[in-house]
Amino acid sequence: MIEGVPVPDRAERTITDEQWNDAVLIWRYHQMGHEVRRCSAAIGLGSHDLGVATTSADLYSAGLFPFIVFSGGNSPTTAARFPRGEAVHYREHALDLGVPDEAILLETRAGNTGQNITLSRDVLCEAGVEVESLLLISKPYMERRSYATCRKLWPEVEVVCASEPLEFDDYIKSIGDEKLVVDMLVGDLQRVIEYPALGFAVEQDVPGDVHDAYERLLGAGFDSRLISS
């Protein structure tokens, strides 16, 4: 058991204790642990997770940025959930939570994280927003990958990462599928490891225990979200 993280009763789980602990280790690695502070602008990175828009609204209300770009079109994994596109649905949710329309910019074409960054940069530039620091708001296990991607594609800005403040077990409950969540953690870690060589991101140190956990989960079949070789 990892200190500070409860392991649910076995009757409530479909994965083993070792797999649970390996997943928690990777979950914690994916989160950057940045101290959130005021930035020039924010980007809400599109995905299946509406918690990104909720967190964006909370951080806007706290006065941490004057403008946010919601970025994302559609993908096979989000088309049914967000038929009008990820960014459009994020915007609607943020408006419902009190974010004023004039604070929201839309980028509706991005199909991957690199496009989220580069196309949102273009939107901010066209809007005349000068960006020295950037708050990247993502789903919890995507913080490190979004950070590494932004440092590669927009190296001149200071990057601060944020996500919905959920523990691993609470996130699993919100998704309702243990296997899928662990698959997503493993898939994002594969991207953190492999994307630098492809020119998509800067290198990130992967501690040995995290890499070992990754290999064990891969060997156990948590592989539905891997990129093609």
- Average pLDDT, rounded to a whole number, is 92
The class by helix and strand makeup works out as alpha/beta
* DSSP strand tally: 5
Major β-sheet annotation:
5 strands, parallel
N-to-C series of helices and strands: HEHEHEHEHEHHH
Any idea what the shape is?
A: globular
Spatial separation of the terminal alpha carbons: 33 Å
Which oligomeric form is depicted? single chain
Percent of residues in helices = 40-55%
Total number of helical segments?
A: 8
Strand content: 5-15%
What gyration radius follows from the Cα positions, in whole Å?
Answer: 17 Å
Low-pLDDT runs of 5+ residues are: 1-7
Q: Taking strands numbered 1, 2, ... along the chain, how are they ordered across the largest sheet?
A: 3-2-1-4-5
Domain DUF218: 52-156
Pfam families: DUF218 (PF02698)
InterPro entries: Cell_Envelope_Assoc, DUF218, Rossmann-like_a/b/a_fold
Protein name: YdcF family protein
